[in-house]
Each structure stands twice: as C-alpha cells, then as structure tokens.
Amino acid sequence: MTPSYEEFERVMTERHTRPVYDKLKSARVAIAGLGGLGSNIAVSLTRAGVGELMLVDFDRVDLSNLNRQQYEISDLGRYKTDALSEKLTRINPYITLTRKTVKVTAENAVGIFGGFGIVCEAFDRADMKAMLINTLLCECRDTIIVSGSGMAGYLSSNTIKTKRALDRLYICGDTVTDSADVNGLMAPRVAICANHEANMIIRLILGEKEV
User: Could you point out which of 30, 32, 154, 172 has its C-alpha 20 to 30 Å from the C-alpha of 128?
Assistant: First the structure.
C-alpha cells in the first residue's frame, strides 16, 4: 500500500531533520545520461528526498546494461527515461519527474538544461562529457556541473575521489581508468563513483562545497 504524503514527509523529516529535508525537497537536479552513473545517481537522489529530477537520455535498455545499471530484464527495449521513471516513482511516489528522451548536442544543451542550478553529467563517452561541460560552463553561468570520470574495472575503491576542478565543476572518479584498459565496467566501482556524484549534489544542495 502506498504511504500517504503525510506519512512519507514524517519519515523523511525524522531521517534528515526538517531543515535538511526542506532543502532537499525543494531542490531541482538535471541528470544527463541514464546509464551506469546516471541511473544509480537518480536512485540515490530519489531515496535522499530530492524533490525534482529531470531525466535526459535518448537510449533504450539493452542486455549489456544490466551488469551495472538500475534496470531489469523486463525493461529490455524500453526507453531508459520511461523505465527509470517508473522505478523512481516506486521509491518515492511524490517526486516530480521530467523526462527528455532526446540526444543532447551542443545546439540543444542550453535549451534542455538552462535554468537548472545543478546538472549531473553522466555520459559514457568522453567527447559527450566534454561537449556538455564546455557548453554549460560557457553558456549557463549559474549552473554547477557534477561530472564522473574514471571508474572502470575492479581496481581499488579508494582511488575514486571527488574534487573541485573549477569554480562550477566537480569531478568524481579516478580520472584515469578506461573500460578498454581494465576489464570493462563493473557494478561496484561504477556505483561508488555514481554515489560520489550523488553525495556531492546533496552537499551542494545543502550549501556545502569541496575545497
């Protein structure tokens, strides 16, 4: 049975305290890419009580995604935006979700992400990462970007860090490992990096910053 809004609010307030939960509940975050990073980030932010997420991806779920992404066999062939939205509303039926099933380009990025104070970059490809970061840093002067880079294989968890690379750019990962070099992408390190991103986003919502 779905808990009432009042029940949900009471439990989240008990978990976080009212001042913290109020900030999380009023926050808006955009997630660019719903793969290993983005799908895990979205789940963590939903569980934390972030009030509004915009989910952006053009891709469909395929079998190769299931080793590290928040999808199931029943999701195969579905748009990631649709499948993930259903999962998130099962976690928090009161979250506000916007879906953009579109490929992000330098031409449409500002139109999609403009107006969001925090954008989570969670693309797979280095060129797409660079395109989005450069575009938003140049064109959206009030936007802070949290990005992931380097989480492949099964190397030590302790090499994954969060650092403030620029005034409005945070990078999470080891910034080195590539999936072609270290036995692909595996759920544990991908999820660790994803939760570094999610935690940094929560810290930013609550007014905290890394050095």
Answer: 154
Can you say how many angstroms the Cα of residue 148 is from the centroid of all Cα atoms in its chain?
A: 9
pTM higher than the cut 0.85: yes
Selection from 65, 37, 83, 36 nearest residue 74 by Cα: 83
Q: What does the pLDDT look like over 108-164, one tens digit per residue?
A: 999 999 999 999 999 989 999 999 999 999 999 999 999 999 998 888 999 999 999
Cα 73 to Cα 61: distance, rounded to the nearest angstrom: 9
- Separation between Cα atoms, residue 118 and residue 67, nearest integer Å: 28
Q: Is residue 175 part of a domain?
A: yes
- Reference 45, options 210, 172, 197; nearest CA is 197
CATH code, domain with 43: 3.40.50.720
Contact (Cβ atoms closer than 8 angstroms) between residue 170 and residue 200: yes
CA distances from 146 to 15, 67, 132, 167 (A): 25, 24, 11, 11
Strand 161-166 to strand 169-173: parallel, antiparallel, or no bridges (unpaired)? antiparallel
